[in-house]
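Troubleshooting entry. The earlier prediction with heme C gave an output that would not parse, so I re-checked the input for stray whitespace and re-submitted. Clean input:
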Amino acid sequence: MRRSLILMRQLFVLLTGLLAAPALVSAAPIPVRGVAWAQACAACHGPDGQSQGAIPALDKLPPKDFRVAMQAFRTEERQGTVMNQIAKGLSEADIEAVTTYFAVRQPRRQQ
Ligand code: HEC
């Protein structure tokens, strides 16, 4: 009896550990991941996507078009020079996060 109680407790600890681990990862707020990606994009698209040069600016792209563009680059439905390779490095969740990042930044810039 006592032994099974200890076993149960060990099982409980193991289970909560297993459940908590992925929760910690996926519970990371979307903007954090979005901010991290946006910094990588800034190298070409400028800070907050406000490119002034030949590379298209991202700051005026509606969030829906932004997401569609990223997905199309990923599946190669849309051919680019560098964006196909870059978009393939992003997961669906990464695309969501970076889309959210630019969507959130947009209204602030237009003020
Ligand atoms: C090495 C430079 C470079 C980096 C880094 C880069 N891009 Fe691009 N991006 C481009 C170029 C160049 C284009 C035009 C399409 C092409 O030639 O691939 C483009 C096009 C786009 C477009 C389509 C714009 C439109 O008006 O249709 C989106 C969306 C985009 N990039 C998002 C991103 C995101 C998000 C990141 C960061 C994860 C990123 N880019 C990082 C160079 C870059």
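This one parsed fine. Residues 3 and 44 are 62 Å apart (CA to CA).
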